[in-house]
Structures are given as C-alpha cells and as structure tokens.
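user: Please supply your own:

assistant:
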Amino acid sequence: MVESSEIISVWLVDDDHSIRATLNEFINQNASDIRVTTYSGCEPALEALGKGTEPPDVILLDIHMPGVNGIEGISLFKKLTPVSAIVMLAGSDEDEEILKTFSAGAEGYLLKTIHLSQIIDSIRAALRGGVPIDPFVARKVLEMDIAKSPVKQDYGLTDQEKEIIVLFVEGLTMNQICARLSIDHPEVNARLSSINTKLNVRSRSSLVVKAQREKLI
C-alpha cells in the first residue's frame, strides 16, 4: 500500500477508446497523486506484467471486452499481481455478473454511470482497504435473492464482527468503519483477520459474497 504522499499507479483496462481517453484526462486534471496507464484489453495488460512491468496499485477493469473478458481477467491478474486491487468498472448491473465479479476476487464494482470524481475517491478507497461499490450495486447486493444459498452455518462471529461485515457490504471504507464504530485501524484489521479466519476467505470481496450467500447478516 502506498503512502498518501506517493503516486498511486492505476491501470485502466477497457476496449472503448473514448472511455479510456475521457477518464484518463479527467484524472490527470483532478488528481495529481494518481498516474493512469491505459490498455485496450486484458491481453496487452497481462503481457506487460509478464514482461516485468511494475504492477499497478489499482486495476480498473471493464467486463465486456473481446478475447479475455473482465471477469476472466480477474483471476489472471491476481496470479501475476495479487497485491493490486481490482475494481470492476462496468456498464452492466446484472446480478450474475456482480456475483461472478466478487467471487473471482475483485475488490469493488462501479457502474460507468458513476460521476468521474467518485471514481477518483474509489481508487483511493481501494488502496486504503475499502470495498468500492456503486451505491445502486450495493443495494442490489443486499436485495439479491439467494434462495440456493448453502445452509447457514454458525461461524462463531461476534456482534461486532457481524457489524463490520454489514458495513463492508454497504461499501464503507476502512476510515468510515473506524468512525462508525469509534475504533482505530489496528482494531478493525484485527477483527477483519478474525472474520477471514472464521469464514475461510482471503479477500474482502469474497467476504461480502459469502456473507450474502449464507445470509450471515
């Protein structure tokens, strides 16, 4: 994780040239701490990583692209750069695609209709350990019918751990969770580590999906 005084490296992977150009220009003009590199698809970005290009801090990834699509790309990027936060920047709010995205290990899900300034905020949130989710998508996740969910298990979660899960599902950042619960970052991280161990998950996005599927909250 970079310090606030350092440059945040972001890769924007999208086959739409106009989206790449618009977002790149906006970030360059409004966020001096963020440097954007654009790729027209997963393949050239993965090739760059394979050749030793320094991995980015955050990857903004489109879903619908020719060749390797965004959802397929998540696991491929995770193998080459597990430390990079992957945030889906999608034109779709289909339930199946949302679940597949988080199941694959993405850290966030934003719709392309979101205001460009919110994308900048989401990049910074992802780097702080938050789960950037478009408010509309967050509501859909909470309302999804998970009738085929596994039988609910007792994982021994404490009331505070359940509350932290709820706040992650709602898309709050680490700073917002600390403020809401009046606890500091080390304590939230300790609780999150306990949650991950109890639920046997490795990322916050997997935590969100599992919590919804098994109706833990």
Summary: The domain at 8-142 is CATH 3.40.50.2300 (Rossmann fold). Residues 185-199 form the longest helix (15 residues). The radius of gyration is 17 Å.
